Amino acid sequence: MVNSDRRFGEWWLVAAVIGLTLVFLLAPVAVGLMQNSPTHYWFGANQVTIADYPVYLSFIEQAREGKLIFTNLYTTEPQTPALFMPLWLALGVFSQLVGGGAILWFYLAKIAAAAGLLLMLYAFIRRLFPEIWQRLTTLVFLAWSSGLGFLIVPAERVWKEYVIFYKVSADFWIPESNTFLSMYHSPLFSMAQLLLLAIFYVFLFVDRQWKFLLLTLLTLLLGILHPYDLVTVGLVLFLYVLVRWLTDRRFSWTAAQAYIAVVAGALPAGLYYVWITRSEWVVSAWALRNWTPSPPVFSYLFGYGLVLMLAVIGAAVVLRRYKKDLYFLLVWALTSGVLLYAPSPIQRRFANGLHIALALLAALALILIIQRLQKQRAALYIILPFLFAGLLVSNITILVEDVASYQRHQFPAVWPSEYASAADWLQNNSAPDDAVMADVQIANVLPALTGRPVYAGHGHQTADFDKKRKLLERWFFRTNTDDAGKAALLRANHIRFVWYSEYERVWGDFAPSEKDYLEKVYERGGVEVYQVKE
Predict the structure, then answer these.
(1) Among 25, 151, 229, 463, which is least packed by CB within 10 angstroms?
(2) Residue 533 DSSP symbol
């Protein structure tokens, strides 16, 4: 009865930690929703998802229209539907069956995925730490900790790409860099880390007949959802099996079979992505532009900060006390750390999940410090609050900045209502294949609100993005001449509509109302929409 009561109380405490974490994650949403008014529309983006959030919504919108296989709406080149994305497909189907828009279902999924990840984390933690207070301390540490990026905020008032890459710490702009930011970013990263952790959990701790089938299914789902993580899974498990073979001096056939099961799940997912990349030119162009190198080392050093310092101590504890059951954490942390600078164009993708491994090692050190200071309560009560406060600062700063951007009605997080109305009109008065030309800032959001393709709107997903952006900003919207060339460009790229607002006007003196190849079909509050004549 005592053990049952303790277990019941433990899960209530876990629920409280998860609930409080979700409150932190959703606090800016409450402020954002309050911005909805006759003059403004809260779009839902935050600074961590500023460019990718609309992409996710564009897939949900396609599913809402009944598509099972998606296309890339951020480019106008002819393409065959080839993208199977079960997460966004499920949200679009739920939206159609139950009601509610893409934004609502995105945030519902974000809550559910974050809660699921935290539960999976706690299941993993229970296998490593014997005492309830140790487990709860570790869960809080994992869920809320960030780095020391607030100590090196650059002086530039505008953070352009080169400033962010070379001067800003990872905990302010790389959502994979810590668990809180991953949960705050999207359900995609939470689901990917949940599956990653589930694979490791089943591999290490489950000893049932269905283990191998479950490993195959989990790996297949992870591969389809977030294929970059297959590299991490494959290398970490291979090296861990090798390390245990060398340290135990006995080869584990069960571990080898489990690894084969993981490979069996990874192969179909890998072959699927190879196939769509080679068979569909638009997907291939997307893959070539998906260049995500790691920033300078200092970015990660400050980005992990105290977590990394404590993780080094925790690693020393594991090695010194010869805790072979915790060698897995060492292998995971070291492998992911090396992958951050491996010769690959997607280096920083491999940060996904690294914070979990580092934070678990750091928790060993933190628990050791607490145990050593138990007889010095005064020191303990002073050190711990300062420690946790320091770990929280970067995450809290991001939340506060998002709240401030919503209150300032900063675009694209908050849209003028006339822009949202124009997007609604476009969706209701166009066919799914009718492409739109607009400034890249507007075009980044339009597929999310309309489900329609755009000429240029995303640095990675738009084929020849730099060339197209220059055409828009230095020629199409800048000059009011060369009408024959502009008409040819619109028709060659299957553009059906041209969006014209203050974002397009700022580039020059292009006057669409004077063009005989354009017909004004919508005008309201400074937004004009023109249809390209046949």
Answers:
(1) 151
(2) P
CA angle (503 as vertex; 56, 445 as ends), nearest 5:
10
β-strand partners of 524: 527
The pairs formed by 320-326 with CB atoms below 8 angstroms and a separation of 24 or more are 324/244, 324/247, 324/248, 326/128, 326/364
Burial 144-173 (b: 16+ CB within 10 A, else e): bbbbbbbeeeeeeeebeeeebeebbbbbbb
- Cα(103)–Cα(416) distance, rounded to whole angstroms? 17
* Rounded Cα–Cα distance for residues 158 and 144 (Å): 27
**Nearest-angstrom CA–CA distance, 132 and 11:** 10
Q: Using 50, 70 and 90 to split pLDDT, how confident is the model at 258?
A: very high
Whole-angstrom Cα distance, residue 394 to residue 404?
15
Question: Does residue 530 sit in helix, strand or coil?
Answer: strand
Are the C-beta atoms of 191 and 87 separated by less than 8 Å?
Answer: yes
The answer to whether residues 14 and 6 touch, using CB atoms and an 8 Å cutoff, is no
CB neighbour list of residue 230: distance below 8 Å, 6 or more residues apart: 219, 222, 223, 266, 269, 270
- pLDDT over 50 at 58, yes or no: yes
Q: One-letter amino acid identity for 82?
A: A
Chain centroid, CA 432 distance in Å:
26
Give all strands (DSSP E) within 396-516, no chain letters.
414-416, 435-437, 495-500
Q: Quick one: DSSP state of residue 496? A: E
Burial of 467 (0-12, 13-18, 19+ CB in 10 A): exposed
CB 522 within 8 A of CB 425: yes
Concatenated DSSP letters of 350-408: GGTTHHHHHHHHHHHHHHHHHHHTTT-HHHHHHHHHHHHHHHHHHHHHHHHHHHHHHHT
What pLDDT shows up at residue 418?
94
| Paired tokens of 262 | 């993981």
pLDDT at residue number 153: 82
Nearest to 286 by CA among 533, 73, 64, 122: 73
Closest CA to 44 of 396, 415, 399, 394: 415
Taken in order 11, 13, 14, 20, the sign of the CA dihedral is positive
In eight-state DSSP terms, residue 83 is B
Q: What angle do CA 348, 353, 354 make, to 5 degrees?
A: 70
Residues near 108 by Cβ (< 8 Å), separated by ≥ 6?
none
Mean per-residue pLDDT of the chain: 92
